[in-house]
Amino acid sequence: MKFSSLPVLNILGKKSRSASLFVFSLILSLSIFGGALILSSLRTGLKSLEMRLGADIVVVPYEARTKVSADTILNQGNRTFFYMPKSNLDKISAIEGVEKASPQVYMCSMNAGCCSVSLQLIGFDPESDFTIQPWVEKSFKGKLSDGDILIGSKVTLSSNRKLKFFDREWNIAAQLSETGTGLDNAVFANMNTIHLLMEAADKIGWSFADKKYSDKMISTIMVKVMDGYDIDNVASLIQRKVRKTQAVKTKSMTSGIAQSLSGLSKIIAILTAIVWFLCLLILIVISNLIIGERKKEFAVLRIMGASQKKLRHLVMAESFVLNTFGSLSGIALAFLFIVPFHNLIKSAMGLPFLLPSFLWMIILVLACLVISILTGCASSSFAAHKIAQIDAGIIVREG
Amino acid sequence: MKKINLQDIILLVLSLLLAFGTEFFFHACPAKDDGSWMRCHWAENAVFAIGIALSVLTLARFFISDQKIKAGISFSFLSFSLLAAFVPGIVIPLCMMKDMRCHTIMRPAVVVISILIFIVSLVDFIVKIKSEKKARD
């Protein structure tokens, strides 16, 4: 038997002792990786929410001001409709400080196919749009034809790539990438398609707007403010010049979510730090107790000729093997529970939640693996130092 | 009854959880207002049936002493667990919106339990094959 195979044989030989160290190492990496993955997903979600808003100001009809908040439109999905005259778009475009203004039309479906859920339908103008288009371009490069729709990532893509709304089938051009917000539940189309949808709805007795004026109505206007202009000033100018509208600043829409996220991030970070500290303490205590029990074993090894350095290496090698397997299992367990249940976590938190990219996840896995293996090995280093100091003669004489 | 090992107990618990958990705790979407079921209900029923079959097979293992037969049952668990994982969403389509109960609760729970059954039965299969080989040698 080689000395190098001794660590593995020791681990396998004393199953309950190894299991206790393995379990604490697993808990340590589970909490570190779980906490880091949740925090990272919340941050990615907020970033995605801000990117999807894109505009500095959202102008809505005055009566719809309560329906437009980050929580209703972007987190839960809007599933509502309200309209104002299209002429407001020209008035807003002419206001000083407005760089871009693009209209959007909202409507909602009765239900889509088998499952009794209504969907938010959003019409946008691909020519002037600057909020949805950058997101669409990630999944769909072509030109959106009349009758084509784009579906959010949470709408299941049917095998025939068609969706039925108002007794008519619509061709699905592409499925958009996930944003972690309520926009994932929406369906997007160009303005002509939205008017065709309105006509189809009207035919089955579902009126959204007066048929005569449906092409002259819009729901919101997304506004981008020119550099050097104050967003507050432009918003109040819009409200003064365009009657019966409300100019909502997107910064104010996301600030509440950012605050909740910051609070939650702190709680998760503190809890993870507490678990890490407690696991470190417990691992130190367990390692010391185990070493105390194994004094005779190490004394025999010393008498057989093992140097102090070799004993230290033996203890550290055992710790490394156990902590590596424990950490890998903890990370796998965190993956197994967070990734499949991420939609449930998102709805329970009520915050934008988007899993980070594959590359970022690999970085997180490696960082957490290193932290938890180092923590485990550091907890054993005290015991390794202690064991190297033993006087083999005294221990053997003591029996 | 023969000697019961830890893997048998874990497999029985997981199989029962797959069957009755899917039926009572992490079930699919409820019936519609008109009393009709959405298509995810049939996925729930299929997973329940697979869970019951797995539970019966695990119970049968308690009365079998032949390691080869036990290894064979473990091997069958591998395909059963994969089937269970693929039933919701792939073999039987679920509801349209991915934020509905069948997508957010039932499918992830079934996938997680199926993966655990797969891992435990794979370990058990390897252990049984090794011990059988050792006994032969």
Q: Output the radius of gyration of chain B.
A: 17 Å
**What count of domains describes the coordinates of chain B?**
1
Largest sheet: spatial strand order of chain A: 6-7-5-8-4-3-10-1-11
Following the backbone from N to C, one meets helices and strands of chain B in this order, namely HHHH
**What is the overall number of helices of chain A?**
13
Provide the residue-averaged pLDDT of chain A: 83
Q: Estimate what percentage of residues of chain A fall within beta strands.
A: 5-15%
Largest interface: A-B, 20 and 21 residues
Q: Which spans of chain B of ≥5 residues are poorly predicted at pLDDT below 50? A: none
Element pattern of chain A in H and E: HHEHEHEEHEEEEHEEHEHHHHHH
Secondary structure class of chain A reads alpha+beta
Number of strands of chain A: 11
Shape of chain B: elongated
- What is the end-to-end distance of chain A? 26 Å
Strand content range of chain B: under 5%
Task: Report the principal-axis shape of chain A.
Answer: elongated
Amino-to-carboxy terminus distance of chain B: 27 Å
Oligomer: heterodimer
Residue-averaged pLDDT of chain B: 90
The residue fraction in helices of chain B comes out at: over 70%
